[in-house]
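Two proteins were folded this term; both appear here.
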Amino acid sequence: MKKSIILFLSMILVIGVLAACGSTKKDNAAGDSSTKKVLTMGTSADYPPFESVDTEKSKNIIGFDVDLANAIAGKLGLKVQVKDMDFSGLIQALKSGQVDFVMAGMTPTADRKKNVDFSDIYYTAQHMIVSKKDSGINKLEDLKGKTVGVQLGSIQEGKAKDINKTVPINIVNRDRIPDLIQELKAGRMDAAIIEDTVAKGFFKKETELKGFTISDDPNEAGSAIAFPKNSDLTAKFNKELKTMKENGELKKLIVKWFGGDVKQ
């Protein structure tokens, strides 16, 4: 009789443990950030100084976005794990729950807002037309009939399509910014559209390249943090971001990664 009771109680205990495990798995799959201690940040580590691989030292992903993410998460008592992927796959990674948020110099366009939520703008930059110094490309009109490269899924891809409405160009895309630079140097592209701060970083080593900035729609400018729809993290990150803007912490990070002559 005692053995039967013990066996019965053991079965109840096992069922309870399995049920608890199933509940935890379901909660984690739902992306409830309130129970997490480590957040996964999706990025495309080919966009210095926003994010890039530290090839000379740690081999880790470093940059302005990484520092800012760590700063905000730290204030919330959380840690950040960075996951590198192609820029064009970041929105889908958010929607599928592979990452908790995205920081990749991403602009909060109307189309992207249909799929994800965004924080307030944390940095504003401009588009730059990049070409070889001997290309003869000095203004938008000079792009007529040229092959122009853009990063797949980027705001610059949309900008190229806008340009094409008035100045006919052949638009080609690549997954990574360094691919655009190499194609330019090899002569397989006449020009590329890249964010100005990123392009200027490449100019330090690629001395045969030059660029000029072009204006953008002020309603679709700047970088923001992307979150899954209705994520509780959006308001939390916005609160800390506002504080960092007010107390000067954000400005210090901007100066660290971009220098003093930058826009916030």
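Next, the second protein.
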Amino acid sequence: MSRLTTIGFDADDTLWQNEQFFRMTEDRFVALLGAHGEAAEISGRLLEAEKRNLGFYGFGIKGFVLSMIETAIEVTKGQVSAAVIGEILAAGREMAAHPVETLPHVRETLAALAGDYRLVLITKGDLFDQERKLAQSGLGDFFDTVEIVSDKKPATYDRVFARHGDGAGRAMMVGNSLKSDILPALEAGSWAVHVPHELTWALEHAEEPVGHGRYRVIPDLGPLRGLIEQLAR
């Protein structure tokens, strides 16, 4: 652990709030289509559309808005009004304009680690939106580099930590998603620190790797520096 040189951080729901805005918009969407089905059914149809569309639109607000429009067409059997589509588009614009809300202990933790480790922001999603959120967060100066990727796989961490550090074996990934931040980083040979968020998108759920030697869990970023120091002993 004393040879750890690089720490990767996820962005959405690790450094700042994100999922709560998707949930709020989904509630608004379900209410718009309330005359065409039960809330749970409409939400389920939306989730299925998101799954289908990930390979076409990727992660982020734009793909979410397109999936909402597709779902509205489906559940209304092609009868959705232009006014409802306009409401969906407006909701997407509001999501894209929402101020960034950083999570507890983020700034002080990054400041404490920045001098001793290479910090790499590794996030997936829409390039424009992720760049906007990073700029608004005021956290950009803490990072040595930023990688906005289409998805997070073991090969992603192999590539990123080789390019910006000393390889996955001397790196740590910190994030809220077991599926995207933790499991593939462990498979690549990195340490992985799970920081659970109270809201996690259904498509990011995965089984926790309990017992893995390089896996740890902390409630927020506050204990991260202490955890690193403890592991290095």
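Residues 73 and 80 are 6 Å apart (CA to CA). Strands lie at 6-9, 118-124, 145-149, 171-175, 191-194, 215-217. These notes refer to the second protein only.
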